[in-house]
Amino acid sequence: MVKKGTILEDRNGNTFEFMEVSSETNGNHTKIKVCLQPNQLALACHCHEKSDEIYEILEGELTYEINHKKMLAKAGETIILPKAQAHRHYNDSAKPVVMYYTITPSYDIEPLIETMITMWQNGKIRNGNANFLQSMVWVNYMESKIYFEGLSQKTQNVLAHILAPIASVFGYKKFYHN
């Protein structure tokens, strides 16, 4: 379980320092200082059902996409990736990107980030994607659902309702901890 001051690092040297956590903001937001190393792919295109993401770029340039429109945010800029909009972000440059990442409201983003880093470290996320059964567990059991590109939200909800309990029998969990 992460708390204020926790620093997580994935196997590519990207770091995530928890500056403010939901327990101290009454769930209003979580703020993380992120350093993405050069040429790093982030999570596959997805949308958050109930939360907005705010990125304040401190150093470097962040490439991001909203509804498949590619854009660039430079140091000193702040961008908002609104809930229910398909998006992703990554470092497409030769220099690190340092930024504050704030998600509001928090819901269960902290254990999800810890889980994703743990899965990346263990080789269970490739090219920004967890496997399909893991994704269905997240869709079914997370408080603030994350939907992935390729299938409608309605279809993902139906599949998640059927497949997540089966995935659980095979050892899939909503969250994994370091």
UniProtKB/TrEMBL annotation:
Cupin type-2 domain span: 34-100
PANTHER family, sorted: PUTATIVE (AFU_ORTHOLOGUE AFUA_8G07350)-RELATED (PTHR36440)
Pfam families noted in UniProt: Cupin_2
Matching InterPro entries: Cupin_2, QDO-like, RmlC-like_jellyroll, RmlC_Cupin_sf
Superkingdom: Bacteria
Identification of the protein by name: Cupin domain-containing protein
